[in-house]
Amino acid sequence: MTETFSGSFTQQEPIPDEAIEAALAVLRHGRLHRYNLAKGELGETALLEQEFAAQTGARYCLAVASGGYALATALRAVGVRPGDAVLTNAFTLAPVPGAIASVGARPVFVGVTESLTIDLDDLEAKAGTARVLMLSHMRGHLCDMDRLMQICDDAGITVIEDCAHTMGAAWNGVPSGRQGAVGCYSCQTYKHVNSGEGGLLVTDDEEIAARAVMMSGSYMLYERHLAAPGPEVFERIKYHTPNISGRMDNLRAAILRPQLRALDAQVARWNERYQRIEAGLRGTPGLTVIERPEAETYVGSSIQFLLLDWAADKVQEVLRRCIARGVELKWFGTPEPVGFTSRYDSWRYAESAPMPASDRVLAGIVDMRVPLTFSLEDCDLIARIIRAEVGAVHQS
Q1: What is the pLDDT, as a whole number, of residue 61?
Q2: Which whole number is the average pLDDT over 248-262?
Q3: In the Cβ-directed half-sphere of 384, how many Cα atoms lie within 13 Å?
Q4: What is the DSSP string of 84-120?
Q5: Which of 157, 244, 335, 348 has the fewest CB atoms lying closer than 10 Å?
Q6: Is the dihedral of CA 278, 55, 73, 187 positive or negative?
Q7: Closest CA to 218 of 254, 247, 239
Q8: Cα separations (Å) of 339 from 332, 344, 355, 368?
Q9: Burial, 384: exposed, middle or buried (Cβ in 10 Å; 0-12, 13-18, 19+)?
């Protein structure tokens, strides 16, 4: 009898009881706006920022409305202006070049390797074309951060890290988001902590932090932040920094604080599931497993594999056969955007030259979410289904 999977690839775990109780407390007192505080109250959002700064080892942290807002704010805060070129990955999701376009800047795309990380040789070749790199750790894959930072430091490039998929990850023990000038994280439902939408920005640079706080809509209430620079820094920038409101509220912050305390345990659970699927896929004819570097501490909240040099109709046949058995796979090789699987040549607002080596990789990337609602037995079953269907199409 043919096995099928009946679970959901979009169902998240329930919000923890502690977070629900914290949210109810905010709803009962009604002070949802982050600056609407009772006498002596610190506020959920300010406490979230303080705790996440400590968790990542950053001096400063700002909580905002979304990960995309954090990215655009970081670009403005480091001084990107309309017309400026900003380097970024050819393999990423639409909010990354979208953030660049939102400030009137121009994305300059850097290639992708078979490890699904930014092509460091291509970055080195393009290093003289821009003074900022928005580095996307796409789908949780970290490149050689030591070499990347050396390239950027030598070229005077400021690095902004998009850590939407790497909250809880690290390179040689350094938390993701802490190598560059700014780290930006997402708290959207499908990321590592869930407040529906939300974002976090960390930095050690006091002026970047102060500009970001002012941009987020602090008015002159910046003293109510617990993970921000002192008032003397705001005095230097407050009249020259526009308010582009995008604050996080106390309700979402209350939901997030208990989840962040549980992040390490959740990472271990994701990696258990990832490793079961990865083990089940190894050795499948025609399928390439993405090898993880020893220096990388990853979070396996999704898994990717390559069907390199397969004809498009054969990849589509794998997807069709897997979904018929309940396994939802996404493909980055489709010529038209489908859901989130757009690619550098999909974004017509950004000029791009052909990138044949990257196109070959993109045409082979197959992607799958790994929700924590999956059991380990579910993961074994999913791997068996993918293995069987890839094998069947490959043999044909």
Answers
A1: 98
A2: 98
A3: 11
A4: -EEEEESSS-THHHHHHHHTT-EEEEE-B-TTSSB-H
A5: 348
A6: positive
A7: 247
A8: 10, 15, 23, 13
A9: middle
